[in-house]
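Replying to the earlier thread about multi-chain prediction with a worked example.

Input:
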Amino acid sequence: MTLDTRSTRPGPTPAATRVPTPVRPAYKKRMRLADTLQTLCVTSVALVIALFLADGGAADFGTAADTLTSIGIVTGLVGSDLLLVMMLLAARLPPIDRAFGHDSAMALHQQLGKPALYLLLGHAVFLIGGYAAAENVNVFAETWSMFGSLPDMPLAFLGLALLMAVVVTSLVVVRRRFRYEAWHAVHLLGYLAVLVSIPHQLSVGGLLAEGTIARYYWLALYLGVAAAIVTYRFVVPIVRSLRHRLVVDRVERIAPGVASLTLTGRALNRLRADGGQFFIWRFWSHGLWWQAHPFSLSAAPTNDSLRITVRALGDASADLPSVARGTRVSFEGPYGIFTDRARTAPHLVLVAAGIGVAPIRSLLESADFAPGGATVLLRSHSVGDSYLSTEIIELCQRRGAELRILAGQRPPRGGSWLPADAAAARITLATLVPQLRYSDVYVCGPRRFTDAVVRDARSAGLPTRQIHYERFDW
Amino acid sequence: MRTRAVLLATVASVSVLGIGWQLGTQSIEASQSLTASGNTASTAGTGSTAATDAAAQAAEAAAATAATAQAAEAAAVAAASSDTAAAAQAAADAQAAAVVAADAQVAADAAAAAASSTAGQDGTFTGSVVGTRFGNVQVSVTIASGAITDVTALQLTADDRKSVQISARAAPILRSEVIAAQSANVQNVSGATYTTDAYLQSLQSALDAAGF
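Result:
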């Protein structure tokens, strides 16, 4: 079972040209959905600029003051639109999850944070500048008079301050200093920031004045986003948790600080969960109920049970392996496209390290392949210290999947994901899996490991659609 | 993003922006004609009010004169017929008619005096000019039988196309709100904050002058 790197024949050098693989209808359907969503997103930005133009905005660039004011209006419109897009991305909308997966949606959410804040800061700066220039007063006097004489402006300034707090606490450097819960509490203020900024948009902005179509569109946009958030972040998870009545049935310690939890409930088929997906779990026991954790399924779901394998982290999840039998569990999910549904190629390659073995195991169990149609690569420090390795071995034998265990320390330099001796012998993903270019590669493990495997797959000429990975550290 | 998505998004965005641009051009043209007609209309408006008043006064006076003339004619006819009783009656009629005419003249004079002085309760009162960053605002208020019956905007924020558009929309809303509330304590018109503030300030000064 151990890979003997010396006897592995060096494979052919990977061709730079991409080999076309037969594309599955499910993939086409998913890409159509993705194209539609991306088009909607970009067009929503164009649409708010069009509202400005339709109001005759193009004529308002005559003087310096007018130009500043017009730029301020446009940045405000686009910034607000991006905020709404960000909220939708975080709202767990089923179409977004189906098309991109939760982690990609959250990655885009994160990327949009700074541009949105800069646009809204620009909105404030340009409008203060524009108004000050028109009235011929200095910017401080103008800001002061805005506070005093315009309606709803104190609230709008409050919204901007809250938004700055949300973005600053989300910067990687700053975020590391906070507990997840503290960061999340600040992050939820983002909703308040959006809420308190609405009144000034409707009362001060001439563009969204009463009786205009723009005002109705704007209100519909906000109501739609609010409805999506309430439905998919609150109503659906609560209804599902109540309906399926999940409780902890068995806790099996498989290593120090690592346990498999079997949860039982009713009519779980209706969740349409798939191997490789994750849920956000909340265990209703003393000391645990206030935290929610994302954990992947580590076994294919059945009609009455779900199983997860968890590794205790520094926080309260350290108590998870000792959670009592019968503890009630509420959940959000299932989420993610780290599943068989995302397949595009005939062969299947599963690469796992650390606790990343959990979704790989459930994926291996539920994926559709003929004997010989899958390769599993388990990466660990020494042979046999992979979690769930006995289960994986048993599954590979039963389903006819090839298993390779790659054990050993990583080389200190070079960013390889392989053991030092394998890396020195120039072993790559392509040499380990001869049919790589006809494969879908699924990778799950620590961030650096995942990045290294993805790099390896890309340099072997594998197109993006054949590389699948999920990140948990969003 | 895939090429298809980029193409779709570009086509959709460009068409949306194009439609917005076209609508904008139309609205600019419309509001330019609005600016022109708006100015004429407001002048014509004040002009027509004055004209109506003058016409009413003239008509009244004319009616009075006609009544006097008729009575005088009757008196003359009666005198010619040398019917003393009839002549006396006609003379009395003529005299009464003259008195009525005189009374009408007095009443008209009194009304004019009331209108020109600011101490009275009824009449049309002009508010102070309030400056804003978008132009000056001034309104006049008409009070009849102790109630606000009309508010006329003499000047509205009109520094640029946008301001004209905004004030043209806000003025009728403010006028009806003021007449309904019978005071200057009405709600801000959204998107026309400067106009609203100045309008109500000018209105309040007019109401103060009227002792309303």
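The two ends of chain B are 67 Å apart (CA to CA).

Feel free to reuse this layout for your own posts.
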